[in-house]
Amino acid sequence: MTFTNPQIQTEDLPNVEDVVLKPISKSYLKIIALNGLAFYSLILGALFGLKYLIKEAPFQNNFWYLFFGVLGLCIFSFIMSILAFKKRKYAVRGYDVIYAKGLIVHSVVTVPISRIQHVEESRSWLARHFGLSTLKIFTAGEAGSDLSIRGLQHLEAKSINDFISSQVDGNK
After folding, report:
1. Cβ(133)–Cβ(152) under 8 Å?
2. 81 and 36 Cβ atoms separated by less than 8 Å
3. Nearest to 136 by CA among 106, 172, 165
4. DSSP 3-state assignment of 167?
């Protein structure tokens, strides 16, 4: 038996960027906004709580500078999360699942279906209210899910789950 290891020309490889990725549900933007508003309200509320607990003059004299600085960071973070939402896209193909996300650091994850151990669909109480689900894909050798696609319409997540499960069961 002769060992062969032919070189592959990178120009001949299929390009992931050619795949048409589907955006996640716009309803998920509402969940991002609600979670962000709740978190930023807690931060700003805690800051006001500190205003009444800390009576030292330096803190009291600089409170409004601190408040508007924190408010500015919250607004910046909120805008960034809304802009990053537009980069969340996915595709399910015959042999793999692709998920792209990230505004500043853009990442594209491709998970071959042949490597998937199992898939699960989950829904938080807020996601249930908006008819959304999270699809978690697990592969061998990792603790936790290798890929989580949040913000899928519930029926779509269910059908993707069924498709991947049938493919995984068919590979065994």
Report:
1. yes
2. yes
3. 165
4. helix
Assigned token pair, 31: 């969940």
What 3-state class would DSSP assign to 83? helix
Q: CB under 8 Å to 96, separation ≥6 — which residues?
A: 110, 111, 112, 113
Q: Is 60 exceeded by the pLDDT of residue 171?
A: no
pLDDT at 150: 95
Residue 75 has φ and ψ, to the nearest 5°, of -65, -45
Q: Give the N- to C-terminal CA distance of the chain in Å, as an integer.
A: 29
Taking the CB of residue 164, how many other CB atoms lie within 10 A of it?
A: 19
| Phi/psi of residue 109, nearest 5 degrees | -110, 130
**Segments of the chain assigned E as strands:** 22-23, 89-92, 96-101, 107-112, 116-122, 132-139, 147-153
List pLDDT tens digits, range 98-120.
999 999 999 998 888 888 988 99
Q: What is the mean pLDDT of the chain?
A: 89
**Which element (helix H / strand E) includes 104?**
none
Give the distance from CA 139 to its chain's centroid: 18
What single DSSP character describes residue 119? E
